[in-house]
User: What shape does this take?
Amino acid sequence: MSATAARPTFLLVHGAWHRSTCWAALRAALAADGLRSRTVDLPSAGPQGTPTAGVYDDAEAISAQLRQIDGPVVLVAHSYGGIPAAQAVTEGSNVVHAVYLAAYMPTEGESLHGIHGRDTTGPEDLSGTSPVFFDPRTALYGDMPEEEAERAIGQLVEQSLRSFQQRVTRAAWRTVPSTYVICARDRALPPALQEKMSTRATHVERLTTGHSPFLSAPRELAALLGKFG
Assistant: This one.
C-alpha cells in the first residue's frame, strides 16, 4: 500500500441541531491539504417531521459509515456528536484516532443532560423534539460575520429529546487514542466543562475560537487536524 493510500479518511460527525452540510468549509480546507473526508447525518437531527431517534440510532449511523470506509479513519466529533461517537467507536474498529471538537466526552452511564447535572429521568415519552436553544447567534456563531452566521442559523433543524437523555454504555476514549480540542471562546459548551472532560483524552489542543471553528476558522482547524492525517 502506498503512503498516500495509507493516509486516514476523516469522518466528520456533526452536533445537535445541525446536518452534515455544516462541514462544507472544513471539507474544502482538508481537501486543499490533500486530506479525504466523509460525513454522516445523524438521525436525531431532522429537517422535517418529528425525529424519534436517540444516541443509539446515531451511533449506528456512525458505525455504518465506518464500515463503508476502507483503511484507517480519524473520527472528528463536534459538540453532541461526541456522545454517539463514544458509543459507536469500539476497540478493533478502523478508527485510529478520535478528535473531540468542543465535544461531550462521556463515560459509561452518562448522558448529555447528566453531564450538565440535569434530571436524567425525564418524561416517559421522549418522542418529541427540541427547537434550537435561545440565541444561537451568540452561542454557536458569535465569532462569525453576520451574513455567514445568519446563513448557518437558517440551516439548523430540530433535535430529538431522546438524544439528550439516553446514556452511553461504552466510552471509546478508553481504548482509542484521542485528542480534545478546547475552544477557548465557546459560548455554548463552557470552556471550564471542556477542560474537565479533556482530562479523559490522550492529548489536548486549543483554539481561540467560539463553538463552531469548522465555520469560523476552517483553515486553522484543518491545519490542526492535519497532524493526524
Notes: Residues 55-68 form the longest helix (14 residues). The beta strands are 9-13, 37-40, 45-46, 73-78, 95-101, 129-130, 158-160, 178-183, 203-207. The first strand starts at residue 9 and ends at 13. Residues 3-228 form a domain with the Rossmann fold fold (CATH 3.40.50.1820).
